[in-house]
Amino acid sequence: DVKVTQSSRYLVKRTGEKVFLECVQDMDHENMFWYRQDPGLGLRLIYFSYDVKMKEKGDIPEGYSVSREKKERFSLILESASTNQTSMYLCASTGGIGYEQYFGPGTRLTVT
Amino acid sequence: AQKITQTQPGMFVQEKEAVTLDCTYDTSDQSYGLFWYKQPSSGEMIFLIYQGSYDEQNATEGRYSLNFQKARKSANLVISASQLGDSAMYFCASQYNTDKLIFGTGTRLQVFP
Q1: Cβ neighbours of B49 in A, within 8 Å
Q2: Which of A17, A18, A78, B9 is deepest in the core (most CB within 10 A)?
Q3: Cα B34–B47–A101 angle (5° rounding)?
Q4: What is the tally of helices (H) and strands (E) in chain B?
Q5: pLDDT tens digits for B1-60?
Q6: What is the per-residue pLDDT across A69-82, written as a single tens digit (0 to 9) for each?
Q7: How far apart are CA B11 and CA B89, in angstroms?
Q8: How many angstroms separate the CA of residue B102 from the nearest CA in chain A?
Q9: pLDDT for B1
Q10: Partners of B68 in the β-ladder
Q11: Residues B113, A42, B6: CA angle, nearest 5 degrees
Q12: Are A52 and A30 spatial neighbours (Cβ–Cβ below 8 Å)?
């Protein structure tokens, strides 16, 4: 059974804290993605990665960075969390063009 | 820029009835793919159906079908025989020459008895 897991379902952090969101997939996919989801805006791509140590900016990368040291793990980093980064964060992986993206359960992050 | 438009923020349907969720896309590419995902209140994104731009037949998966009208650039999702468990957010997404997805803003479907 294919699986994408995320380290936390709910997270509360303070403004200015460094935040790590972890994502792990067990499907040997090369391509992984981080999205944030906000009401009325759908899902927006933050960063994606096509291979280990490779990363590319998505549509809204400001305030975020990523790390991919191993094929199965893709981390999203908020260097200094701000209240406008309160959101649902979704990780996904895929086998390529024309294939579905498999999503993790999401992390609901609140920054106070 | 590539764009997906879902004009229905919310839809209601009675159990056992069919419902159509609208989706239009904007592209000049010849090769692209269209996806529909379901997101229940629990938050996970569930893949429902996929249509490639060169597919001549409309995609179907059980009670889900995709009404693909290429000339009108529409890819509407049809759910037949609605069930209470179909109540969820539904997202249309497009894919153009990469495996990145562009999502619409979603439609919240509520099925009532």
Answers
A1: none
A2: A78
A3: 75
A4: 0, 12
A5: 679 999 999 999 999 999 999 999 998 888 899 999 999 999 999 999 999 999 989 999
A6: 999 999 999 999 99
A7: 10
A8: 8
A9: 67
A10: B75
A11: 65
A12: no
